[in-house]
Amino acid sequence: MDASYPKREKLKSKKLIDQMFNEGQSVSAFPLRLVYLSTSFEENIIAKTGVSVSKRHFKTAVDRNYIKRLLREAYRINKAGYFNNLTTQHAFMILYIGKEKPNFTLIETRMNQLFAKFLSKISE
Hints:
By secondary structure, the chain is an alpha+beta fold. The chain has helices at 14-23, 61-83, 104-122, and strands at 25-29, 32-39, 47-53, 89-96. α2 (61-83) packs across α3 (104-122). The two termini are 24 Å apart. The chain has a four-stranded mixed beta sheet. The protein contains three helices and four strands. It is globular, with a radius of gyration of 14 Å.
């Protein structure tokens, strides 16, 4: 798995997103929350991922887009180290649930903790 985040790895299916929030499981590493669902895709990829930031805490689109860019970049950099050994396909939604505007180092450390928790939870 390379360190890119192409269009085919982005989670865009509304039906799959609704199913994920209804039937999926989650892990948290404040201020991040990962909702995931084991599923299957037609494409030969391991994971489809989406990011989301609450409009309630960040009123301006500029702030929400900035945080989403940080989340996508932290995911892109760290996904290869964690998801190379996955055998089943998963759908992920990474949610920012904090109230303060973060910096990249905080997001990246929490993303690593989040992925480690996810891997330990699915290996049980």
